[in-house]
Amino acid sequence: MAHAKLADPQCTISRSAALLGERWTLLLLRQVFLGTRRFEDFQSQMDISRSVLTERLAELVDEGVLRRVAYKDARTRYEYRLTEKGHALYPVLMALRDWGARWMPPEDGRPSFDLHHHDCGGDVHAKVECTECGVELTARDVRVTAPNR
Amino acid sequence: MAHAKLADPQCTISRSAALLGERWTLLLLRQVFLGTRRFEDFQSQMDISRSVLTERLAELVDEGVLRRVAYKDARTRYEYRLTEKGHALYPVLMALRDWGARWMPPEDGRPSFDLHHHDCGGDVHAKVECTECGVELTARDVRVTAPNR
DNA sequence: CAGTATCCTCGAGGATACTG
DNA sequence: CAGTATCCTCGAGGATACTG
User: Fold this and answer.
1) Strand C closer than 7 Å to the CB of B57?
2) pTM exceeding 0.90
3) What is the rounded CA–CA span in Å between residue B129 and residue A97?
């Protein structure tokens, strides 16, 4: 394996980053969350080469982020859907989106799509929170310590 | 520029992913949030080559995520600190950490460090929330629409 | 200590054509 | 439609040595 060092087996962020810090993987996941499921759709929407797309999809299936689901066409084919593990990546994508919207605004100032809470129409926002007292946290509010053994 | 297509100028996630979906960038940011500031410390802690480290640091400074701050040694040197834009990446890193801790547990089951709210000692958690009604959201609770023009 | 310069390798990713 | 097979390029990244 190349880049083995990237995946420091001790660090959670490190191992997640080894999977998600791949050129196409984050974009592929964006498409999945937007509803894309089929090979040809990924290929045309993302303008990714067929071989790399095949590889990335297989990798995400291997990791348990996507699963292949059969559907009927002329012959039986498969589409790719999020597993529970995959769905759990939603906060990562949303945090990325929030940050990009605020700090890397598009040239023409328009977002490519809007997101709203289905029930009340409110805006969607990713944040870090204290599970105890419920306040929103920044890096400065958090203490890093050696793990409890 | 290689991989120009990656940075679909329309999509916020796309442009953020082009920066953060780089092999070493997420790990570099992890180190920064853990308090690393100096070249040699990054180099030894991450086991990254000097040239790539130089490049990545310059890139993050260019993008306004890090800034160089002079400090006194034998001669004047610089260390790298988060800008406001850089600090704003905290939710991304924390979302990644939460996900990894739950879905990519380390081999030996131990995290490499713990995080606690400085004030109350509570746990730290990244989540997606509705700014209107305040409930926690999953992908299923969110509607995607064409942007308002 | 914090880089820069040089050189090299290898593998990620693209293009294209083919297959069931 | 959803891939697989083949071939090729180029650039990301490592190793090493040097510099102020």
Assistant:
1) yes
2) yes
3) 14
